[in-house]
Amino acid sequence: MNTEILGVIVQIVLLVILAYPLGRYIAKVYRxxxxxxxxxxxxxxxxxxxxxxxxxxxxxxKQFLKALLMLNAFWFxxxxxxxxxxxxxPLNPDGNAAQTLDQAFNTCISFLVNCNxxxxxxxxGLSYFTQLFVIMxxxxxxxxxxxxxxxxxxxxMLWGTMKTIGNFWYFLVRSVTRVLLPLSLLVGxxxxxxxxxxxxxxxxxxxxxxxxxxxxxxxxAAAIIPIKQLGTNGGGxxxxxxxxxxxxxxxxxxxxxxxxxLIIPMAMIFALGFYTQRKKLSYCIFGVMLVGxxxxxxxxxxxxxxxxxxxxxxGIAQDGGAMEGKEVRLGAGASALWSTxxxxxxxxxxxxxxxxLMPLSGMNAMLNMQTNTWFGGVGVGWMNYYxxxxxAVFISGLMVGRTPEFLGxxxxxxxxxxxxxxxxxxPFVILVFTALSSYLFVHHPEFVAQEGGWLNNLGFHGLxxxxxxxxxxxxxxxxxxxxxxxxxxxxxxxxxxxxxxxxFLPIVGQVAIAGLLGAKKHAPETAGTLKTDTVTFSIMTxxxxxxxxxxxxxxxxxxxxxxxxxxx
Length: 568
Fold this sequence. Notes:
two-stranded antiparallel sheet, two-stranded antiparallel ribbon, mainly alpha, 2 domains
């Protein structure tokens, strides 16, 4: 077997094997059961005491959301202040200047919503201080926010009638201290051993093989990279992200980082089964997500390892596959696996340039973000699937002529309206803003020229670059087709708006649905009850997801990625 394909298979198998025990552990953490990490309890108690929090106080869904939104509002002000004052703060040996208002807004919102879209280069756009006290801090907080929101929804799904959905602060703190922090330390240890820098020195002067002098950034990279992957954050410490030889030095670090992206999203699905004591339901959900992931991975690996047909027609051998924009030390197979792993989650980190992917691979990367349900970000991936689950329950109920029910709770008009709005919001913001940027590029070239031109590629690929950018924002992903010149006021402001809307409105809707259903009277299961933990219903849900994505995005893909594919 080809060693590159073997590497892909090994990583996926290891992920599934490791996710199961991690999911069981996460469920115990949220249920307050005894675990090996109980030694963190004194630290957590200090946090609760200093913050004036009673972790045992139960919250209804409105109180839960209020705490979540207030926390994020505070950290937005914190992040904006530090980014605008960056040039005057300590730990800035390279003398990096403060960000402009529009760039700071985009950066702060991007990391606050767990997207980590970067309209700046990591080495020159931030100081060590803001890397640590804005970027790394947000990467813990925002990941824990998504995990806490999912924990609240899991609490609402317990047997019986649930008036409350737990304590947001309790779930948030435990997500950091008992899940994200220990795993980050483990991954960071591996990175340091493999040569990733960890220090506070300024740029290092080196002489290249050609005899040229070059300055290479260093800094506390090994502390930041683990949480960017584990929290499905994705913001690169270096400008080229995990393509950089210091951020991702070896094939071992590539495997560890790539697996880190997906391990917690996978584990959270198993945690759902253990927490709610509905393991069969979690297996069905995991199966649907795994199928979606494997299909896109298989296509991308085949496309990238097969090479570009235009180059083959010229009689040039492509033994390594389509290697434009990829690192030789990693290869086309590992790059293709990463391209799907980072887009089925809301991670967005890259080990190759997605702008150089084959057209069908680029389409798959976008479709992963446009469906936004194949594992997704930590916590929020399940929550997006939850929206489609409610829609599938309602449609299935209509098909068999029964009142729709989910886990013994009747799904009414209010829940369906919220689910429909959340499901349609995603394509709405992507397509509307892509249409706006395309209109301005064609009909107002003077405005585009004033901002630097935006596109390095015209035609089908130019549309793909704009389409990808807003897709990435709406999915809280952060990767991009970097032929797009996006560090301009237009892209900074519009992407920031898409980021805000696409993060918080779905969370509000999903938690609201969970709270409304949890408070309803539990109806005992009968012979006529629609079972949601079967293969049949799993296929139904899969079809609903695919149809909504296909109907929403196929026309835009027909004008961009598919048109480019047929032009090869």
